[in-house]
Amino acid sequence: MSSIVLGVSGGVAAYKAAVVLRAFTEAGHDVRVVPTPGALHFVGAATFEALSGNPVTTDVWSDVPEVAHVRIGQHADLVVVAPATADLLARAAAGRADDLLTATLLTASCPVVFVPAMHTEMWLHPATQDNVATLRRRGAVVLPPAVGRLTGPDSGPGRLPEPADIAALATVVLEHGAAALAQDLAGTRVVVSAGGTREPLDPVRYLGNRSSGKQGWALARVAAARGADVVLVAANVELPAPFGVRVVPVGTAEELRTAMRTEAKEADVVVMSAAVADFRPASVATAKLKKDSASEPGSVALVRNPDVLAELVAERPAGQLVVGFAAETGDDDADVLTHARAKLARKGCDLLVVNDVSAGQVFGRPDNSVVVLAADGSATEVPRGSKDAVAVGIWDAVAPRLVDRGRT
Ligand code: CTP
Questions:
Q1: Ligand 1 centroid vs 283 CA: distance in angstroms?
Q2: With contact defined as beta carbons under 8 Å apart, do 374 and 351 qualify?
Q3: Is 308's C-beta closer than 6 angstroms to any atom of ligand 1?
Q4: Sequence-separated (6 or more) residues with CB below 8 Å from residue 9
Q5: Ligand 1 atom with least separation from CA of 277
Q6: Which of 23, 53, 313, 327 could form a disulfide with 167 if both were Cys (CB 3.0 to 4.6 A apart)?
Q7: Facing residues of 235 across strands?
Q8: How far, in Å, CA of 344 to CA of 352, rounded?
Q9: What CATH number has the domain spanning 3-181?
Q10: Is 344 touching ligand 1 by the criterion CB < 6 Å?
């Protein structure tokens, strides 16, 4: 159990802080909510007290004998400020201590995550951008805001990421430090495929696989948090879109192939984490196959699908990094890594993320562990952790290999 301070500043998105709080307490953390006085115009202290089980105060004049304005920050393992308004970012960047939250920020030596939410004009204003740069330079994580519907009719960058994204990314910082969400992908375009393709047999049946899309989702979410412009080509995944990510839904391998080839043209990094069916039914019945009709199939004839990864490698523009995935088991001929090295060479990609699936299941599980093999012969082990933590390890291996293609 860790001690988390959840700072809440005065924006309408403060209501989502209650859901972030719930995610932290359900994960077993002790959470102290520190709202600004403005935040309490949107959500009452009683809500935060009831959900956290801890007292809620906003100013430095309560609990004076406890020296709360110093103690809360000193004892925290993580501070998350969600939403962080333009005013809160300005006061934090200036080092002010005019309420309990800013005082806490000055006394906290743990990682700090700001999750901005404000109108687009305020986010894009040079004053706010300078404040964000200052806070990042000092080691804080400042997540890029999501793009979408704001209060009223406005739309644009400035929306608070969804509570599930905030909780997952904050947990990564809690476990791996602020460097896990460094802005080392800023200005890069990333395309990730995720999920599993479905190959129709008739209008109601398909051949599919058990990929949940969770690892690809985590890769997209962490890349967006690290500053990338992310497109997620999603094959049959029911999860809500990660913040700041454009999702292109696809069904079959052929649809995935078309979407990937289009999106990859402008990409700096392409990650093929989708489970693509190697075969599809040779013909698709236009009407439902009936069990008692003459059309009942004795066997299903299959034809081979194109190898999308190999095509992307063959077509890639200069400087583009291509990352493949491989689920491997050892056998009598060779161990997992030997098979994986042969696959890396065969596919011609720059990096291959290897899942050892001999010991247990990967599909649908919340955690994972991988080895990242590179074409230069190196192998980086990413220890078992949440799929977001594994995504951090994968981007740590990719980021230093990015070539400046003149866009950043
Ligand atoms: N892949 C692909 N197109 C396919 C099959 C796989 O792009 N038709 C991609 C996957 O997204 C993954 C990588 O290729 O990134 C590895 O896929 P895998 O099926 O493990 O490799 P294969 O070459 O099919 O090898 P094998 O089945 O013999 O292990």
A1: 22
A2: yes
A3: yes
A4: 35, 36, 38, 39, 81, 83, 84, 85, 87, 88, 101
A5: 8
A6: 23
A7: 195, 250
A8: 6
A9: 3.40.50.1950
A10: no
Going from the Cα of 368 to the center of ligand 1, the distance in angstroms, rounded, reads 19
Query: Is 20 close to ligand 1, i.e. is its CB under 6 Å away?
Result: no
pLDDT digits (tens, 9 = 90+) for 123-171: 999 999 999 999 999 999 999 999 877 777 878 889 999 999 999 999 9
Give tens-digit pLDDT for 104-128.
Answer: 999 999 999 999 999 999 999 999 9
* 3-181 and 189-404 agree in CATH topology: yes
Nearest alpha carbon, ligand 1 atom 14 = 309
pLDDT in tens, 24-58: 999 999 999 999 999 999 999 999 999 999 999 99
* Separation CA 85–CA 13 (nearest Å): 10
Concatenate the DSSP letters of all residues of 6-56 into one string. Answer: EEE-SSTTHHHHHHHHHHHHHTT-EEEEEE-TTGGGTS-HHHHHHHHSS--
> Which of the residues are catalytic?
209
Domain ranges of the chain: 3-181, 189-404
Of 3.40.50.10300, 3.10.450.50, 3.30.70.1560, 3.40.1790.10, the CATH number of 189-404 is 3.40.50.10300
Show the 3-state SS of 297-317.
Answer: CCCCCEEECCCHHHHHHHHCC
Give the helix/strand (H/E) hosting 245.
strand 245-250
* pTM, to two decimals: 0.94
For tokens 């005082």, what's the residue?
103
Atom 21 of ligand 1 has which residue's CA nearest to it? 326
Ligand 1 centre distance from Cα of residue 309 (Å): 7
Q: Which residue, by CA, sits nearest to atom 3 of ligand 1?
A: 307
Taking the centre of ligand 1 as the mean of its atom positions, its distance from the CA of residue 185, in whole angstroms, is 26
Which ligand 1 atom lies nearest to the CA of residue 353? Answer: 15
